[in-house]
Every structure is written in structure tokens, then in C-alpha cells.
Write a structure and sequence with these properties.
The complex is a heterodimer of chains A (238) and B (621). In chain A, 44% of the residues lie in helices and 15% in strands. Chain A has eleven helices and five strands, in the order αααβββαααβαβαααα. In chain A, strands 3-2-1-4-5 form a five-stranded mixed sheet, with helices on both faces. Chain A starts with a helix and ends in a 5-residue tail after the last helix. With 621 residues, chain B is an alpha+beta fold. Chain B has four domains: 3-132, Sandwich (Jelly Rolls), CATH 2.60.120; 154-276, CBS-domain; 316-465, Beta Polymerase, domain 2, CATH 3.30.460; 482-619. Chain B contains 23 helices and 23 strands. In chain B, the strands form seven sheets. Chain B has a four-stranded antiparallel sheet with strand order 1-8-3-6. In chain B, strand 4 and strand 5 form a beta hairpin. In chain B, helix 19 (475-484) packs antiparallel against helix 20 (511-529). The longest helix of chain B is centred in the C-terminal third of the chain and has 28 residues, at 552-579. Chain B is globular and about 90 Å long. The chains are: A alpha/beta (238), B alpha+beta (621). The A-B interface holds A 72, 79-84, 86-88, 194-197, 199-200, 203, 205-206, 209-210, 212-213, 216-217, 220-221, 224-225 and B 1-2, 5-9, 12, 31-40, 42-43, 60-62, 105, 107, 110. Strand 3 (80-90) of chain A pairs antiparallel with strand 1 (35-39) of chain B. Chain A: One of its GO terms (cellular component) is cytosol. Chain A: This is DNA polymerase-3 subunit epsilon. Chain A: GO terms for molecular function: 3'-5' exonuclease activity; nucleic acid binding. Chain A: Keywords: Exonuclease, Hydrolase, Nuclease.
């Protein structure tokens, strides 16, 4: 019975999808490498897993029109946000930056002339993502931009990656049951609710750190002092 | 590049002692090495056994408590507090074992020990800020305060001030040859006399007037005939303060600056006036020449200005205490002289003694009066009346000059403390032979006495009597230690409150009651136990160390702690003076920054540890 449940566990499904995709012949090397490692068993303790928290700063929310300005990421290991593993990259571009986005994230064109090309920046990100569980606040944006990049650049379908969304975790808390639609779930607001210090926002790395800390807090709130298995976090969908 | 994007973390650690002492590139390196963890309420870390890596912990938000293995609360820590210093370098006797528990959800920054160690190896000049031993941290705290500001005039070295050059002559030269050398060759008011390369004497132009011209001595006699033999000298590294007090005590106007038999220069009073305005000397001189109590009382603002200058100059607390005591003595002596001018010559021998902090030369701006009179055993009832007149005048006049009357009435104007030497000896015998709590409280002030006027031998006899008694009755020290350890230092400053050991919080820190007095009491017990004749707190500890009852480590710890809390009190008093408020001992925790809170915690812990050690050592008889 347990075997059966495990078979249909989302992680097991992701693992099978990973193996299928790995068999595809048209995968570019960077992507093949990214999904080359087996996914963790549902019984694996979170403490033994490595996570990659990341954040993209973009010119807007539509991946087909907007583009990535900067990428920040860092690892969580042994349940510690590790600043030493952090990375921040500006993405070079020839086109102009919209004034309204520059207001939000303080990224001005001069910064981008120093940056990496989109391919280089994404390859860096993929290398860091390998073997990690991915964390972002509101994974939708990050996921769509990555999917769009893979589609545009290589003509391939979205990858079966393991995602954790701190925004969805926050919404799942009992205290938020009544206002999942109306509440303020911006990273800074959520952090404030959990008594985390105010951080400078809208910098891809600062937001990654802020999200990483929030993740640690949410795990403690949801599961108490015993750190759970990954299988309990990525729940089978009914 | 990456590090410049860590403003949140960098900004936070930049405001915390000791990281704020580091240059910005090192701060960035440290920020880049941090890892962050989150503890739910009740979660624990045990730094000493915690896995392979060791860390210095910084609380970003939340509250943690450190507890000793036996469960006793060691410290409560809030945002910006650090712990885990122990692991920077393993020390056998560093911070004792403890666990740290989050009492509120806590976001912790972890700085890897490895990273810090590497960084401090490359930049050893910052290492002491991170030292695991509290004493080293306290010492570095004092140093930082000193170096941040321009050093005060008293702590300048003699070599920085003394630019004059004396004539150097030999003992077989004639008086005239020497005068010629002084007048025409070197153009100096002073000549150092050497014999076979060794400094043997000194002669000044004033000496020439007094000893040669006035006495009609032949100018063909050798200079050795009229020179001052074995003259006072100062070293180039001595403090100006030391030179100033030498000059005052000996009434000389110039001091050769020498090391060994090498003459470096000449320090003169006019020199110091031009270069340094050593105000205390002028004040003491003015006090000596004052003719009325009103004139003396008018000098109070000057006394406060000197105190402020000393504290501003970050002069070591021991020296501040000594300078202020010198000034206090000058007032006191002048008033005794005025009393004698008014009431006539004393009918018998007597000593005016000061007690308590005044005897120990640990005077601050808020010090009150503690005094006594020891009369000759022959004193009659009428004689006593004379001294009552004198003491009433002196004590009341001192009060007019800003030295508040003793609230416990431990003053010479109290009949009880104006007695013959014989009665004083009886007092001591009673106290030492049958000590009880109340008499101890009332008399500990007289366990230190210092004569400032009259028969100095009276107070010496009294002290010798006391030491002899203590040797014969070791139970006295047991009572003292019981008394001295009945008050505990607080655990630390937490938020805006002083966390006391009982768990009760106070709004202000009474730094005298909860810190300074505790150290002074411990010093007294250690000092008396080994028969130390000095009453100075630091010297007592040093003597106890020489007699092997106080370890080198404990000595450094307690002296560092004592200097730090004294400095804190001085600064508090100085701020009160500047605001025009009466200085007191109650400090609001709001006035403490991260720096003070960290170091106060260290100091409190050191005092508590020494209390424990003293209890063990002296309770068993």
C-alpha cells in the first residue's frame, strides 16, 4: 500500500518525468546537466537536502514581453541560509529599460552593460539549480520566465523541477485561511508578520536572502521543532 | 560585487561592536561569510558540542538565554548581542560551558570561526576585539576609547612636552664655570651635574641666588658644594601627570628628563603652562592661597572643569581618582589651616584622617565626606572641645565647597569619630573580634584610613593594629566576605532594563551599589587577607596576586572590569555635569549602546565569578 502511495507521490511522478526527459535527444547540455541527478525520495529529511533560493528581477510580469534584468540566488544547507554561496548577476541587454521598472528595482541601464548575456546568466543559474529543491516567493513568475526561456532558446517544454513557494506556504497557514485572496502576501509584508527584520527589497539577492529566511520560519511554524521529510512538504494533490 | 549587494547584513553588523571597529573591506568579507538560521521558541544550541563547525553568533531578532550546565541563568541576549566568543581560540578557562535557548523566535547570524580566525591572522591588529577572554575584550574596549579621542593632557608623555635642554656640567667645575655654561652657552635655567658620567646633582639659577649669593659662597668653589644632591628626575615615558605631582609635592620648578644617566631634556613649570595648561596644578596652588571659605567655594566650577577634562581625555580611572583626591586633600588641608588660624594652635597632637574612597584615593566628582580625628591619648575634655570646633568648621566648609556631608555621619564632626588613639584602637578591636552585620555596615568605611594633616603616625599605628587583629581573628574576613557577597551584580542590560540575578528588572543601573562597591569590597578582603598595606583597590588585587591568592588571569579580569565600570561612572557623571544636573550613580540603560552592553555583561560576569571564588576561599576558616 505504502509503495502504491509512494508511486503516486508528486516527487515520484517528478522523478519519472525527469528520467523521461533525460532520455530526450534534443536536450542542450546545460539542461541535461541540470536534471542529471535523481530526485530525493519522499522520506528524505529536509535537513539533509540542499535548497536553492532565487529571485529574478524583471521588467514586468509577462515573460513574452518582459525580460530578466538580474538574477540572485543562494543555497540553504543544513537549514542554514548560506551567504557564502550567494550570487548576483545583472543580465546584459541592448534594449532600453522601462522607467517604471527602474523605479522599482533601481536597476539602471549602466548596470546592465556590465552584466552577463542572458545565456551565460541562465547557464549559471542552471548549474546552481542542479540537485537542489527550488524556493522562491511566488514561484509563478520565476517558473514562467524559465519556461519561456527554454521554449524560446531551445524549443523545449517546461522541465519537471521541484519547486517550493513561500507565498503558497504562507497562504496555507490557518491564520490566513480567510483572506488568501485579499491579504497582503508581498515578501516584505509576510516577513513583517513573522517579525523578521525589514530588508531592502527588489534586489534579486536581497530578496533571495529574505525569502530564504522566511522559508526557515515557515517550516518551523508549520512543522514545529521536528524538521519534516520532503515528502510531507510536497504533498500529494487530491 | 556580491558583497556590495548585501547591504542588509552589512549595515546590521556595521553597527555592532566589535565589527564596527573593522575597516569596511573586512566587514564585507565577514558579511559574505555569514549563514543565517532560525530558532523557534524553545529551540536550543549547544555551541561547545555543535557539529564540526564553530561560530560566533549574532542575534538579529529575537531573544535567547544562556544557561550554565546546572541550569542557572548566565545571560539574556537580545538583538545585536553576541555569543560564542569562546571558540575564536580555545581556552581552558574561557567562558564556561553553557547552552543557549531561544525564549522567543530568533533569527541568528552565524559567523564561521574559521573565517574569523583567518581574517584575524591576516589582520592581527583587530584580534583583541574578538578575543575569547573577557579581560582582553575589556582591555581593548578601554584602548579603543582612549585612541578614539585625542589623549588628555595628563596622559601625554613627558617627552612630548619637555623641549628644553639643561646644561650638562661636571661635579669638579667651579660655580662660576657652571654659571657661565648655563648663562652663555646653553641658555638654560638649570644644569645637570655629572660625575664620571653618572648624574649626581642639579643646580638652578634660583639655587645660585639662594645658596651662592645670599650665603656669600665663593664662586670658585666646586659646584658639588651647592648643588642639589640626588635630584628628582622623570623618565621620557612618564606621564605629565606624574611629573606634575612630583613638582607639586616637592615644590620644584624643573625636572630633568633622564633615562639611566642620559639626559634627554628639561621639563619646567613654565614649559607645562605654555604647552599644556595643567589645570590641576593651578587649582591646587589657588586653593593653598585662598583666605576664606567663600574663595574656596568659588573654585568649585574649576574643580568640575578639571574632572571633565580628565574624563574627556579618557584618562585611566585610577589616575582620575588620584587627581581628584589630590584636589580634595588640598581643600581639606587648607580648611584645617583656616580652622587653626581661627581657633588657635591645637592643644595636643592629632591626626585628621580621611576614610573610605577618599583614603583609597578613589575620588569622583560626587564623592561625599568620610573623615575622623585621632587625638593624642593625653587629650583632655577641653582639648576635645577644640577639635569639635575645628571639625564642625571643616566639615561644614567642605560641604559649602561641594563635598556633600556624609549621609551616615561618618565624619570628624561626629563625636563618635573624634576620639583618642586608644579609643580608636578599642573600636577596631571590638569590630574585628565580634563582627556582626550591622557594625560591619557601619564601620567598613573606617577599614581604610589615610592621614592628611597632623600626626601621620597615628593612622599608621591604627592600621597596624587592624592588621594584627585580622591575623589573630580570621573570622573577621569570613564576616566581611559574607557581607560583600550578599549583593550580586546584575546579569546584563536587556532592552531598556537592568536584569538582576533575582530575575527582577530595574529601570536604572546603580553602578555604585551593583558594581563598584562589589569590586572595592572584594579588593579589601583580598588585600587584608595578605596584609597589603596599600588601600588602593587595584594595588590590593595586585598584591594579592603577588602573594598567590589571586591568579594572574583573575587579576587581569577584575582590573579590566573595574576600570571599565569606573570609566562608565565617570562618563555618566560628566554628562550630568554638562547638563547641569547633580551627578549620581544611577545610569539609565537607554544611554548604553551595543558597545557598553557587551562589555558591561563581561564586567558583571567577572565580578560574579570573583565573588564565587572569594566565597570559597574565605568562608572556610
Amino acid at each position: 500500500m505504502k509503495k502504491l502511495i509512494n508511486y503516486f507521490h508528486p516527487l515520484a511522478q517528478l522523478e519519472r518525468a525527469r528520467q523521461t526527459r533525460l532520455a530526450e535527444s534534443n536536450l542542450p547540455d546545460a539542461v541535461r546537466e541540470l536534471i542529471s541527478e535523481p530526485y530525493p525520495h519522499p522520506e528524505t529529511k529536509l535537513y539533509d537536502l540542499e535548497f536553492l533560493v532565487f529571485d529574478l528581477e524583471t521588467t514586468g510580469l509577462n515573460p513574452e514581453q518582459d525580460r530578466i534584468l538580474s538574477i540572485g540566488f543562494l543555497q540553504i544547507q543544513q537549514f542554514r541560509v548560506d551567504i557564502q554561496s550567494s550570487s548576483h548577476t545583472y543580465v546584459k541587454s541592448d534594449t532600453d529599460i522601462k522607467a517604471e521598472s527602474a523605479v522599482i528595482n533601481h536597476i539602471v541601464p549602466e548596470m546592465l552593460t556590465e552584466g552577463l548575456s542572458l545565456d551565460e546568466a541562465m547557464d549559471n543559474l542552471f548549474r546552481a539549480m542542479k540537485g537542489k529543491v527550488l524556493i522562491a516567493h511566488g514561484t509563478m513568475v520565476e517558473k514562467e520566465f524559465i519556461d519561456n526561456y527554454l521554449q524560446q532558446r531551445y524549443g523545449i517544454e517546461p522541465l519537471p523541477l521541484i519547486w517550493l513557494d513561500t507565498l503558497a506556504m504562507e497562504k496555507s497557514l490557518m491564520r490566513n485561511q480567510n483572506d488568501t485572496q485579499t491579504g497582503d502576501y508581498r515578501l516584505s509584508a509576510v516577513r513583517e508578520r513573522h517579525n523578521l527584520p525589514p530588508y531592502l527589497a527588489h534586489n534579486a539577492l536581497a530578496d533571495s536572502i529574505a525569502t530564504g529566511e522566511l522559508f526557515l520560519v515557515l517550516i518551523k511554524i508549520i512543522f514545529g521543532k521536528t524538521i519534516p521529510t520532503i515528502g510531507r512538504l510536497i504533498k500529494p494533490v487530491n | 560585487m556580491i558583497q556590495s549587494l548585501l547591504p542588509n547584513i552589512l549595515e546590521f553588523i556595521s553597527q555592532i561592536d566589535p565589527f564596527d571597529k573593522l575597516p569596511s573591506d573586512l566587514k564585507r568579507q565577514i558579511a559574505g561569510s555569514i549563514s543565517i538560521t532560525y530558532l523557534a521558541r524553545g529551540e536550543k544550541i549547544e555551541p561547545q558540542t555543535d557539529s564540526d563547525k564553530k561560530y560566533l553568533y549574532i542575534i538579529r531578532t529575537g531573544v535567547m538565554e544562556q544557561r550554565k550546565p546546572n541550569g542557572i541563568l548566565r545571560a539574556r541576549l537580545g538583538p545585536e548581542d553576541l555569543f560564542g566568543f569562546t571558540f575564536i581560540e580555545p581556552q581552558s578557562n574561557a567562558e564556561d560551558g553553557y547552552t543557549a535557548v531561544a525564549t522567543e523566535s530568533t533569527l541568528l547570524y552565524l559567523v564561521p570561526h574559521e573565517q574569523l580566525q583567518k581574517l584575524l591572522e591576516d589582520h592581527p591588529q583587530y584580534a583583541e576585539h574578538f578575543a575569547s577572554q573577557a579581560q582582553i575584550r575589556l582591555q581593548s574596549a578601554l584602548n579603543v576609547v582612549w585612541s578614539d579621542n585625542e589623549k588628555g593632557l595628563f596622559v601625554k608623555k613627558v617627552s612630548e612636552v619637555a623641549t628644553g635642554a639643561p646644561a650638562i656640567v661636571t661635579a669638579d667645575m667651579t660655580i662660576q664655570q657652571v654659571a657661565h655654561e648655563m648663562r652663555n652657552v646653553v641658555r638654560s635655567s638649570t644644569a645637570v651635574v655629572k660625575d664620571k658620567g653618572v648624574i649626581v646633582g642639579l643646580i638652578t639659577d634660583r639655587d645660585m641666588t639662594k645658596r651662592v649669593i645670599a650665603d656669600g659662597v665663593s664662586i670658585n668653589r666646586p659646584i658639588s658644594h651647592v648643588m642639589t644632591k640626588s635630584p628628582l628626575t622623570v623618565g621620557p615615558d612618564d606621564l605629565v601627570l606624574k611629573a606634575a605631582s612630583l613638582m607639586m609635592q616637592n615644590n620644584v620648578r624643573s625636572l630633568p628628563v633622564v633615562s639611566g644617566n642620559k639626559v634627554h631634556g628639561l621639563l619646567t613649570t613654565s614649559h607645562m603652562v605654555q604647552k599644556n595648561r595643567v589645570q590641576a596644578i593651578f587649582l591646587i596652588d589657588t586653593i593653598k592661597r585662598a583666605n576664606t571659605v567663600e574663595q574656596l567655594a568659588a573654585l568649585t566650577p574649576e574643580r568640575q572643569a578639571i574632572f571633565e577634562a580628565l574624563v574627556d581625555g579618557k584618562v585611566r580611572s585610577e589616575i582620575v581618582g588620584q587627581v581628584m583626591a589630590m584636589i580634595y586633600d588640598a581643600y581639606n588641608r587648607r580648611l584645617i589651616q583656616m580652622a587653626i588660624e581661627t581657633f588657635g594652635e591645637p592643644p595636643c597632637k592629632f591626626a585628621w584622617v580621611v576614610a573610605g574612597s577618599h583614603a583609597r584615593n578613589e575620588i569622583h566628582i560626587g564623592s561625599d565626606q568620610d573623615s575622623a580625628i585621632i587625638m593624642d591619648n593625653s587629650a583632655s575634655a577641653e582639648d576635645r572641645q577644640y577639635f569639635e570646633l575645628m571639625s564642625t568648621f571643616v566639615c561644614e566648609s567642605l560641604a559649602k565647597c561641594g563635598f556633600t556631608l556624609c549621609p551616615g555621619n561618618f565624619m570628624a564632626s561626629n563625636r563618635k569619630w573624634c576620639q583618642t588613639l586608644g579609643i580608636w584602637k578599642n573600636y577596631y578591636s571590638q569590630w574585628v573580634k565580634s563582627p556582626d552585620h550591622n557594625t560591619l555596615l557601619n564601620t567598613s568605611v573606617f577599614l581604610e584610613v589615610r592621614s592628611i594633616y597632623g600626626e601621620a603616625s597615628f593612622s599608621e599605628q591604627l592600621q597596624n593594629h587592624l592588621y594584627k587583629l585580622i591575623r589573630q581573628h580570621p573570622g573577621f574576613l569570613t564576616s566581611l566576605i559574607k557581607d560583600a557577597t550578599s549583593v550580586h551584580p546584575p546579569l546584563g542590560i536587556f532592552n531598556s532594563l537592568v536584569l538582576e540575578k533575582s530575575g527582577v528588572n530595574s529601570n536604572t543601573l546603580n553602578i555604585k551599589r551593583y558594581a563598584i562597591t562589589l569590586v572595592v569590597d572584594l579588593a579589601r578582603i583580598y588585600g587584608l587577607s595578605v596584609g597589603c598595606t596599600s588601600t588602593n583597590t587595584e594595588e590590593r588585587f595586585r598584591y594579592a596576586n603577588q602573594r598567590a591568592v589571586l591568579s594572574e588571569d583573575a587579576l587581569k579580569n577584575i582590573i579590566g572590569a573595574y576600570r571599565f565600570i569606573c570609566q562608565l561612572r565617570f562618563r555618566h557623571q560628566q554628562e550630568a555635569l554638562k547638563k547641569g544636573i547633580e551627578p549620581n550613580n544611577h545610569i539609565s540603560p537607554d544611554s548604553f549602546g551595543s558597545f557598553e552592553r557587551q562589555h558591561l555583561k563581561d564586567a558583571f560576569r567577572i565580578i560574579a565569578n570573583l565573588q564565587d571564588a572569594a566565597k570559597l576561599r574565605f568562608s572556610e576558616v
